Amino acid sequence: MADHFAYPVGLRLSGRRVVVIGGGQVAQRRLPALIAAGADLLLISPSATPSVEAMADAGEVRWEKRRYEDGDLADAWYVLIATADKEANNAASAEAERNRTWCVRSDDAEAATAWTPATGRSEGVTVAVLTGRDPRRSAAVRDAVVEGLRDGTLTAPHHRTRTPGVALVGGGPGDPDLITVRGRRLLAEADVVIADRLGPRDLLDELPPHVEVIDAAKIPYGRYMAQEAINNALIEHAKAGKAVVRLKGGDPFVFGRGMEEAEALAAEGIPCTVVPGISSSISVPGAAGIPVTHRGVAHEFTVVSGHVAPGDDRSLVDWPALAKLRGTLVVLMGVDKIGAIAETLIAHGKSPDTPVALVQEGTTAAQRRVDATLATVAETAKAQDVRPPAVIVIGPVVNVGPGGPAGPGA
Ligand SMILES: C[S@@+](CC[C@H](N)C(=O)[O-])C[C@H]1O[C@@H](n2cnc3c(N)ncnc32)[C@H](O)[C@@H]1O
């Protein structure tokens, strides 16, 4: 047969019979995409890997535990042959040829009538790469294209599916690598970005010059409250037809006022996409070597805001109840009030020896960790000049792991 290029095509397999012969590693790799395509999957194989077995147990694949027999491909639209038995592979391949059914062979690309491209997906785009005989190169090209689409370095503007309105994007705790893939893509597509002081500010430098970057803290708010002024800026730019990203630190809904912004947009009929982010409440302790839970040490963690002191009428936090918990207490926005918080927890039963860690500017180049106990934390934080933003972790998990006060990183 002449060495022509393969003809690429997208098969619409939903509800159509696909027969897979052999339940080993090849089937394990290929089945998830066939399941995702909605194929009516029949697996013929005397044995299967535990993962393939799990797909069969979940009802995603019908598994007949036997060897291939002539006639098995009668109803197939597409066939994948992947057994270690050359004779069975040849026989199945011959049947597919007779039936004029496209057939992939894992053992002999030359004998196959179809090749599986290296595929990847990013936000509704399927990338499929064929390079003939070099699957590693196919995979490398696929990875480069998908990665480029995801992080916006490969600019391919959406014409029909560009996300309209405002995207509330959780930017993570600060390290630019800790934003989600979706958040980064939306940022790359934005016309206007309204950013907080916390979060991955380094990413703003990478935006093209036409993108208007607005510092949320500097929006003039005259007779409005600052939040109302931010809401108005979002609404105004979205109404002007701009793709607006509201870039927030951590997750938009963890002490982020994200829902207030979503509600303000909804009231104006402006579409709003919420992109979750990695919250500092878990990631900042983690970056400093503190797990918020640990087997045998803490089976719960509670995240609270310390921006109003215990005893203040505006506080919605039940500090006496928190003092009774055995697990981990994570306090955000609590640096200024740590003295009153520690005093209240001790007064309601927490041991003064309970370990405490303050992690300032977590995940950034300036990250630092200061260790203390409930009894000493106010004094230590002052002496060490701990400043916001910092996450305060209270509980025995502070002493777990090599980064703790007794560990080599201390
Ligand atoms: C208004 S809250 C926003 C929280 C954010 N939405 C989140 O999910 O992480 C701000 C507080 O988060 C904490 N925080 C955020 N980023 C931080 C970081 N990189 N290092 C330490 N604390 C951080 C601090 O306690 C800070 O005062």
Automatic annotation (TrEMBL):
Record field: catalytic activity: precorrin-2 + NAD(+) = sirohydrochlorin + NADH + 2 H(+)
Keyword field contains Oxidoreductase: yes
PROSITE patterns in the cross-refs: SUMT_2
GO MF entries: NAD binding; precorrin-2 dehydrogenase activity; sirohydrochlorin ferrochelatase activity; uroporphyrin-III C-methyltransferase activity
Coiled-coil features, chain-numbered ranges: none
Record-annotated Tetrapyrrole methylase domain positions: 166-377
Active site residues per record: D196 (proton acceptor), K218 (proton donor)
Enzyme class: transferase
Annotated Gene3D superfamilies: Cobalt-precorrin-4 Transmethylase, Domain 1, Methyltransferase, Cobalt-precorrin-4 Transmethylase, Domain 2, NAD(P)-binding Rossmann-like Domain
Protein EC: 2.1.1.107
GO biological process: cobalamin biosynthetic process; methylation; siroheme biosynthetic process
UniProt cross-references to InterPro entries, sorted A to Z: 4pyrrol_Mease (IPR000878), 4pyrrol_Methylase_sf (IPR035996), 4pyrrole_Mease_sub1 (IPR014777), 4pyrrole_Mease_sub2 (IPR014776), CobA/CysG_C (IPR006366), NAD(P)-bd_dom_sf (IPR036291), Siro_Cobalamin_biosynth (IPR050161), Sirohaem_synth (IPR012409)
Pfam families: NAD_binding_7, TP_methylase
Top-level taxon in the UniProt lineage: Bacteria
Residues making up the signal peptide according to the UniProt record: none
Keywords: Cobalamin biosynthesis, Lyase, Methyltransferase, Multifunctional enzyme, NAD, Oxidoreductase, Porphyrin biosynthesis, S-adenosyl-L-methionine, Transferase
Family under the similarity heading: Belongs to the precorrin methyltransferase family.
NCBIfam families per UniProt: cobA_cysG_Cterm (TIGR01469), cysG_Nterm (TIGR01470), PRK06136.1 (NF004790)
Name by which UniProt lists this protein: Uroporphyrinogen-III C-methyltransferase
Organism: Streptomyces beijiangensis
Organism lineage: Bacteria, Bacillati, Actinomycetota, Actinomycetes, Kitasatosporales
Name of encoding gene: cobA
